[in-house]
Amino acid sequence: MADKRDYYEVLGVDKGADDATIKSAYRKLAKKYHPDVNPGDKEAEKKFKEATEAYGVLSDPDKRRQYDQFGHAAFENGGAGGAGGFGGFGGFDGADMGDIFGDIFGDLFGGGGRRANNGPMKGANVRASVRITFEEAVFGCEKELDLNLKENCNTCHGTGAKPGTSPETCPKCHGEGQVVYTQQSMFGMVRNVQTCPECHGTGKVIKDKCPDCRGTGYVNQRKKIQVSVPAGIDNGQSIRIRDKGEPGTNGGPRGDLLVEVVVSRHPIFQRQDMNIFSTAPITFAQAALGGEVRISTVDGDVMYDVKPGTQTDTKVRLKGKGVPSLRNKSVRGDHYVTLVVQVPTKLNEDAKEALRKFDEACGNRPSGSTEKKKKGFMDKLKETFEDS
Ligand SMILES: [Zn+2]
Ligand SMILES: [Zn+2]
């Protein structure tokens, strides 16, 4: 024991380090040197053991006090501390160890290590989805969901035991729901806590199973659930309905029902947050002369006064014709309409003639005008070169 390194030094923390610092230092080292991460690496294995031993002492207030006072001697046989020898993990409290390993190795290897719980537990949340139209999302709606939900079995009232019998205390864990295993490992004896395999953590076993639920205490039932979809909800948002999830265990509350809203696409409206976007066609004459055009909104059609000389792709705003705020229905976004000038493709002779006249009246004819412009440009180009 003489060549043993100081525990604080091993973990790389100050003498005054608090529990969180010590834990986090150990986590780092354990992750780095864990034998599963460094298979066959003796040096890593040594470091891992060393760090684990240091953590075992420094994470325990009593042992830490003894160590601070007597150093390593505190844990040697017959040492001043009289801790009865720190042989491997003999000094670890089982539950504590479960915590640490659950924590660290849950991180490392993803999952596992959760402690069993046979106290009241909230039931699991249930997820469902509801499809609604664009307008239903804007104005809100009532929907009825037909769901297959886990319910307490009526025959056994959720106990899982055949009527007239009752569940018995699990003989393996004596109702604790968890069992402590002592395992010989390369770094000494490890006491590990696991969910009782006999009762799966419930602390109870059922000898005579209820015939209706086969001992599970639950049955699946189709249930109709009313969902109030609030005005302003958007695609992908969820509505939480409290206490409509799975039943809790050991008297715990029910879980929640989380309903995801799926909004169908609209043929002409698009939405971004609280604003609605659409395009509306206007004729060439309407664009040039101005006039009323009919525009569809979620509130129905409105007449909009197009200004004379409106260019194609002009955006106009219909204030307050957008989506209501989820928090306050009376606050609404706007509706932006892009006016698109339609170029006529099917013209009869009269219309063609009228257009030719129109062009002439605008001074756009005769067609020689392009020729003139071109000439002017060439002259300009010539001048430029002559100047230089
Ligand atoms: Zn039952
Ligand atoms: Zn058990």
Keywords:
elongated, 3-stranded mixed β-sheet, alpha+beta, 4-stranded mixed β-sheet, binds zinc ion, 388 residues
Q: Any overview of this molecule?
A:
Helices cover 28% and strands 26% of the residues. The chain has 388 residues and is an alpha+beta fold. Strands 10-11-15-14 form a four-stranded mixed beta sheet. The longest helix is centred in the C-terminal third of the chain and has 19 residues, at 369-387. The radius of gyration is 39 Å and the shape is elongated. Mean pLDDT is 82; it is low at 78-99 and 102-116. One zinc ion (ZN) binds at residues 153, 155-156, 160, 210, 212-213, 217.
Note the run of SSEs as H and E. HHHHHEHEEEEEEEEEEHEEEEHH
Distance N to C terminus: 96 Å
What portion of residues is helical?
25-40%
- How would you sum up the global shape? elongated
Strand content: 25-35%
Mean pLDDT across residues: 82
Low-confidence stretches: 78-99, 102-116
The strand line-up of the biggest sheet is 10-11-15-14
Question: By helix and strand content, what is the structural category?
Answer: alpha+beta
Q: What does the radius of gyration come to?
A: 39 Å
Main beta-sheet annotation: 4 strands, mixed
Name the bound molecules. zinc ion
Tell me the quaternary state: single chain
